[in-house]
Amino acid sequence: MKAVILAAGEGKRMRPLTLKTPKPLLKVSGKAIIDYVLESLGPEIDEVIVVVKYLATQVKKYIGKKNRNRSIRYVLGSDKGSAYSFMAAKKYLSGERFLFVYGDEIPNPVDVKNCLAANLSILTFKSKNPQANGVVYLRKDGTIKRIVEKPKNPKSNLAIDGVMVLNTDIFTYEPTLIKGEYYFSTMVGLFVSDHKVYAVNAENFIGDLTAPRDLVRVGNILEARYNKSKN
What we know:
Elements: E1 2-7, E2 27-28, E3 31-32, H1 33-39, E4 47-52, H2 56-63, E5 66-67, E6 70-76, H3 82-87, E7 97-102, H4 109-116, E8 121-126, E9 134-138, E10 144-149, E11 158-167, E12 177-178, E13 181-182, H5 184-194, E14 198-201, H6 212-230
Parallel strand pairs: 1-4, 1-7, 4-6, 8-14
Antiparallel strand pairs: 2-3, 5-6, 7-11, 8-11, 9-10, 12-13
């Protein structure tokens, strides 16, 4: 099974740290973010497609051509937004189911495994500030009926995270232009309305890595968990 890692963005909200270093290579508790992403992938994943753009040479040099006996392919993303960067991976995917992970988050390996247990799925978490997220509304069977991006008056606190199991039908949907940028999430919103995509609740959600302070906050959480597991 293949995994697509989206690692093309500039990480503007992480500046000045990302002026010379791509966000996936920033360190959390002494380890690059992309290392956590790669380590979260289970044995089902035998090929990884990494979408790069901003400071791409650094990312490619760091990861290399192989990782834990998995082959690594690189594709060049787009300046038009995350949707078109994602669509650059289409040439390596054909009529199949695949794992999608954002390259600037720290997935829990258990969450990834749980997502893979469903045919199609999206990792979700309970947000304290749903207005800042893509909010999920469910059908009675636990599948996602719709996703509303940053709603002003959300009627749900369930939000999407950066781990998904999709299939190549996703490429049949056109992204929507929002404030000059085409977002991948708009394609996902259309995909879930036509497919049975299950919401998988995240275990021990640690929050997004958005600003420099989050590197310290998440690092402290990870270190506390590690110390707890040793005792």
